[in-house]
Amino acid sequence: MKTLIAYFSVEFGNTKALAEKMQAVTGADLFEIVPDAPYTKADINYRNPLSRCNKEFFGKKSIPVSVLPENFSEYDKVLIGFPIWYYAAPLVINDFCKALDFTGKKVALFATSGGSNTGKTIAKLQPYVNEKILDAKLFNSYTEEELKSFVEN
User: Fold this and answer.
1) Is the overall model pTM greater than 0.90, yes or no?
2) Whether pLDDT at 59 is above 80
3) Do the Cβ atoms of 91 and 118 come closer than 8 Å?
4) Can you list the pairs that 10-15 forms with residues at least 24 positions away whose Cβ atoms lie under 8 Å?
């Protein structure tokens, strides 16, 4: 089974570090989801009502990605990782999913967060993935065995 670990990460790089660790313990392919306009630290300051992340979230903006994975059709399983924003995936994840055909693929989500859980992440992303999302797991601490189990199941 060929697996892709696709992730979006900003500022502290927690999601990137998690995705890289998953890749290291499983050998799955790794892909970074990058928006056309990368985020700055000021852009993701949710305490500022005029910050980019707040404008995007409350305006339900489309956040196009700069590039999509090559040979996406070859993957059997896709794991999508991101930090939790507003109890859900950042909007760039919606656009990433809308741009790809997930038909016949196993799909699971993984996330990092400073204080919230995955909330209604599956329900909010499901309309953009034409396959059932199997799981959404929050990883703030983990062992290599837990990562391997998540990727391989």
Assistant:
1) yes
2) yes
3) no
4) 10/39, 10/44, 10/83, 11/39, 11/41, 11/44, 14/83, 14/112, 15/81, 15/82, 15/83, 15/111, 15/112
